[in-house]
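User: Please predict the structure of the protein below. I'd like the answer in C-alpha cell form so I can feed it into my own downstream comparison script.

Assistant: Understood. Taking the following sequence of 637 residues as input:
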Amino acid sequence: MIRGKVRRSQLVAPFGPGAMQVLADGTSVITAGLDHWFVPGERLDQEEFRIHEWRLESHLGVDALYTPPDYRDNFKARPGQYNTELKVPVLRFPAWSFCPRCRALTPQPLHIADRPRCADCSGQKASWAPFLAQVPFVALCERGHLQDFPWFEWVHKSANPKCRPLKLKLRTSGGGTLASQRVVCETCHKDRGLEGITSVERSNQEHAQETTYLTAHLEDGTEYSCRGAMPWLGLEIGEGTCGEPLRGSLRGASNVYYALVKSSIFIPEASSGGVDPSVLEALEEQTIARARANVRDVLEEGEKLTAGRLRRAAKKNAFRLENFTDTQIDSALAILEGPAATSQLTTESVDDPALFRHQEYMSIRDTIDSAELVVREPEGTRAKDVGELISRVRLVEKLRETRVLWGFNRIFAESSRQDTAARTALLRRRTPDADESWLPAYTVLGEGIYLELSQEALVKWEARSLVQRRLVPMVQQFQSVAHERHLAQREVTPRLVLLHTLAHLLINQLTFECGYSSASLRERLYDSPGPDGMNGLLIYTAAGDSEGTLGGLVRMGQPERFEEVLRNAITNARWCSSDPVCMDSRGQGPDSCNLAACHSCALLPETACEEFNRFLDRGLVAGTLEDPGLGFFSSLE
C-alpha cells in the first residue's frame, strides 16, 4: 500500500488537499479532499481534534476547525481508546507512468496501491520487470484544476485522436531542456517534442488576451482548454468544461500549489461580552465540549442549552463546572451557543486583513490576562525621544496563533479573481451542510512584542510631500506587476512601508540581541490609512513546542532593552554594505517592489514576512543619503 509520513502541520501547508508530494519510495501522490479525512466509525471522536477559534470560524463561515489526525497503532492502543488508525488518504498522481527501460507510456488508476511494473518488459518473469516511473509533467489552469498532461492528444495534435491501439513512448535525447523530451506514437509513427508547453503567449495582440502554448497549439485551428479535472477529489474529468487556458508544468514546480492560509491571534471571546474567560475555558475543555455537543444533538428547535442540562450531560466530568454559578455558565453559553454573526466567505472579508485584524488590534494594544493571551504593560518609562515616536509598547507574554487552510491557488500565488468561495470549494467534492462545514488548521504557542507609533507624529510625517514622492516608483512598479501577474490591486501607503520595514529591521536586530534565528520570528502588521487608522506591529515567535517559548523575546520588550534594540536597528539602517547602490535603487527585490532594501539590510526569510518581502524602504525609516531627515526615525540617535 501507499504509505508515507508527514507532519500534521504540513497537511495544512504546503501539503494540503490538492497538493502533490513525493513519498520515501519515490511515489508521487496528491492529498485527497476533506470529504475522506475523518471517516465516520465506531471508534471516531472527532471532537478530540477540535480547535476553538471563534473569530476564524465566524470569519470563514464554517462550523468548526480541526487539526489533521495523527496516526495511532491499533495494537498499541488502550482498551476502548478512540481515534486509532486514522489516516489522511492520498491518490497516486500523475496517473501516467513510463518504463525507464523501454520508455513505454501507460496510464494507471489513481487508486492503485502497489508500485506498478512494466507489462512490456515482464517477459517470462514479472518480478524482473522494472518499476514504472511517474511522468514529470502535469497540466493545470489558473482556477485550480489539475490533470495529467494530454500525451495522446498532444502527439496527434487533436482533441479526439482516432489512432488505435494506444502505444506511446517518452523518449529523451539526454538534454536538460523540454526540447530534448519527445513523445512518440508507435502506431502511426507521429513524433512531437515538448518544447514550449510551459510558456504563455498572446492570442490577440490588439486586446492582449492571454493564452498558453499548450492551449493554442495542441489542436490545429482551435483551442484545447481545461476540462476541469480534480484528481484529488477522484474527478479525472470535470463535471463541466472549465474553459481556462491549460498550462504544462513540471510536477515539482513551485507554481503547482499555493496554499491559502488565514492566521489569527486568539482573542478571548469574552473580551467584548463581559464574561469571565475562565468560564469559557472550562466550557471549551474537551470533555465539556463533548457534553455540549451531545445535548445540542437532542435539543428541539428553538430550545436553548442551559447550565442545568449541561451539568447533567457532563456526568462524572461535572466537577469541572463546580466553581461557576448557573448564571455565569448561562452567560458563557449565550456566547458559545448563540447565533453566530457569521460572515460568508467573500473577497472583501478574506483578502482585506484590516477588516479582520481590527478587533485583534483593539485587544492586543491593551492589557489582557487570559488562558490563551497574556498582554502586559512594561514597567519603567521610555526615553523622551523614543516616546515621541512610539506611543505604546506591550509585552505579549503568551499568545496562540491558529493557521487555517481555506483554499489554494495554482500558477499564481495571489489572484485578482473574485472567486474566493470557489477556492474553498476546491477542498472537497460535495458541499457540506452548514453544521458540518469545517477546515483543517493547527495552532502554535508563542510570545511577542507589540509596538505602536505615535499617531500625531505619523500623520504629520505622512503629509510631507517628499515622503509621498519617495513612494511613487514603488507604487508604479506594483501596479504594473499586479496587472502582469494577476495580483489584486491594493493601496501602497507610506504607513505600510514604514511599519513593514521597521518590523524587518527589528527582527534582524533581535537575531543579534537575543539569539533567535530570523526564521523563528514573524511579523504581524496592523495597518489602515487615515488619521484614526491602525498603526501597530507585532513581532512574535510562533514556532515553539506545545508549551510555547521561554520568554526571551518578551524580556527584550522592557524599556531599557527595547530602546537599545530600536536605536541599534535605526543606526544600522542608515548604511548598508551595498550602499550607495542599495539606497539609490529605484526598484529591487521581489517584483522590483522595494527601494532601499536588499539581502544585506532588510530582507527576511519568506516564512517571517507577510508581504513576500515587498514594500520595503530604509529611506522612509532612517532617511536617505541625500535627505537624512526624510525618515520617520531620522531624529533618533
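That's the full C-alpha cell string. The mean pLDDT is 87.
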